[in-house]
Design goal:
This is Large ribosomal subunit protein uL4. It holds the Pfam family Ribosomal_L4. The chain is an alpha/beta fold and 209 residues long. It folds into 2 domains: 153 residues, Ribosomal protein L4/L1 (Ribosomal Protein L4, Chain: A, 3-Layer(aba) Sandwich); 41 residues, no CATH class. The protein has a 6-stranded mixed beta sheet. Strand 4, helix 5 and strand 5 form a beta-alpha-beta unit. Helix 2 crosses helix 3 and helix 4 crosses helix 5. The radius of gyration is 27 Å and the shape is elongated. The two termini are 19 Å apart.
Length: 209
């Protein structure tokens, strides 16, 4: 699959690059994508949720009323879940939501996500570029030149470029990461992928196996 290479002003450079069929030309495996996204979101959960159970609620343990003769049900403690302020029955406890996923499944998921984006014409390849200084307006102008100002974009660079990263931080729908940081969730969450030519080579090398 051949795609046009654009510059940072959104202009056609007259060059083309070949997208690897082993990555961008495969049939996307939706189940692998689902598993990888599920793991990504599960790993982000803190799992610190907690409610007080009967033994932990701050109430006296005295018997509330006599056992018989009141006409009502027996009540032994204000900690009982049937009373307001009593302990919670089977409430949430702190837990770890993370789970294991094989490396080959994760790699397949990333390839599938890239293939899905390429087949939907949502991948743009750019010439390598940088900014002289961190300026948000420069990054906004860059997106506007590509007609992507109102879309969620993911820019993939070969290595960390501080000026580009800092320029994008205040742009709400923009995200920048290196080829080695790419994950399935961010690939699928973006409307358009912007990949520099050097990052494309690095990405194809990383996912070749």
């Amino acid at each position: 699959m051949e795609v046009i290479v654009y510059n940072s002003k959104g202009e056609d450079t007259g060059k083309k690059v070949e997208l690897s069929d082993a990555i961008f030309g495969i049939e996307p495996n939706t189940h692998a994508i689902y598993l990888d996204v599920k793991q990504h979101l599960a790993n982000k959960r803190q799992g610190t949720h907690k409610t007080k159970e009967r033994a932990e609620s701050a109430h006296s343990t005295r018997k509330l009323k006599k056992q018989k003769g009141t006409g009502g049900a027996r009540a032994g403690s204000a900690k009982s879940p049937v009373f307001i302020g009593g302990g919670t029955v089977f409430g949430p406890r702190p837990r770890d939501y993370s789970f294991k996923l094989n490396k080959k499944v994760k790699a397949l998921a990333r390839r599938s996500a890239l293939a899905a984006k390429a087949q939907a014409n949502n991948v743009s390849v750019l010439e390598s570029f940088t900014f002289d200084a961190p300026r948000t307006k420069d990054y906004v102008a860059f997106l506007s030149a590509l007609s992507l100002a109102d879309k969620k974009t993911l820019l993939i660079l070969p290595d960390v470029d501080t000026n580009v990263v800092k320029s994008s931080r205040n742009v709400q729908k923009a995200r920048v990461m290196t080829a080695s940081q790419v994950n399935t969730y961010d690939l699928m969450n973006a409307d358009q992928l912007l990949i520099s030519t050097e990052a494309l080579d690095k990405l194809q090398t990383l996912l070749a196996n």
